[in-house]
Amino acid sequence: MNARHTAAPSTDLDHQREAIAGLGHELRALVDATVRTVTPADVLHRVTDEVRRLTSQLTGRRRTRTEIPHVDEFPGGIRMFSPVTGPGNPLAPPVRVTPDGDGVTGHCTLGIAHEGPPGYVHGGMSAMLLDELMGWACSAAGTPAMTVSLQLRYHGPVPVETPLRVHARVTGTEARKVFVTGSITTEADGDRQLVTAEAVFVAPDPERARALFPER
Ligand SMILES: CCCCCCCCCCCC(=O)SCCNC(=O)CCNC(=O)[C@H](O)C(C)(C)COP(=O)(O)OP(=O)(O)OC[C@H]1O[C@@H](n2cnc3c(N)ncnc32)[C@H](O)[C@@H]1OP(=O)(O)O
Q1: Do both 104 and 29 map to the same domain?
Q2: Gene3D superfamilies of this UniProt entry (predicted)?
């Protein structure tokens, strides 16, 4: 998501979300510049001091570990700070998720910050994209759930700086268990699956969910 191209805010919540996304967007640019730069040490020292100064401006009240941000819709909705889809999280590409006929599809482009082998995506990053999209597929099917098992096959390296498509769909349910499959392809070659995944998710029973997410 490019924060500079979002529509004019209509509510305080939209305004807050736009500000969060704007900061996330700039921080992603900073992260990208940081992992690509070949600038000399004196410049790096200067930037380090500037970044430390900026960080000190964000250390007022901070949310607690289990606090759900007021800008979020949990579960199954907007997660502004998700490490995968959150526009406010500089770790996130961020993935843009859309429903499709039989599940959900995520669209993103990963950068050098997500690199494993030179020029290709880190395998753990692919796992994170698939885990998240499979979670969205569970929510889209009406069963928000958590991963209990995730099996991946890496058929070919996933290129960085290349538009990607992540697909996930629920293949079956059995009581609280949800069975999900997923894949990663490039946008350009949607037939060639570079990574495939099979997962089991479990919807926590209500008592367990209350214990895990007390502020929900
Ligand atoms: C509100 C939600 C928001 C959800 C919000 C989700 C956001 C999405 C984020 C992306 C996804 C993630 O990263 S989620 C984060 C990573 N995952 C986790 O941290 C989950 C850690 N695991 C847990 O906390 C727990 O296992 C729970 C809460 C998920 C389930 O515990 P439980 O409710 O006690 O369930 P339990 O009785 O043990 O198991 C239920 C059934 O699943 C089966 N089962 C258990 N493990 C497995 C397994 N590995 N493979 C096959 N089947 C298994 C059991 O045999 C049983 O079958 P039967 O005997 O009934 O036949």
Answers
A1: no
A2: Hotdog Thioesterase
pLDDT per position as a tens digit, 150-195: 999 999 999 999 999 999 999 999 999 999 999 999 999 999 999 9
Residue nearest to ligand 1 atom 56, measured at CA: 177
Q: Print the domain residue range for 204.
A: 96-212
* Residue-wise pLDDT tens digits, 94-119: 999 999 888 999 999 999 999 999 99
Q: Is the pTM of this model over 0.90?
A: yes
- Ligand 1 site residues (CB inside 6 A) read 75, 131-132, 135, 144-149, 175-177, 200, 202, 204-205, 208-209
- What is the number of domains present in the chain? 2
Q: What is the ipTM of this complex?
A: 0.95
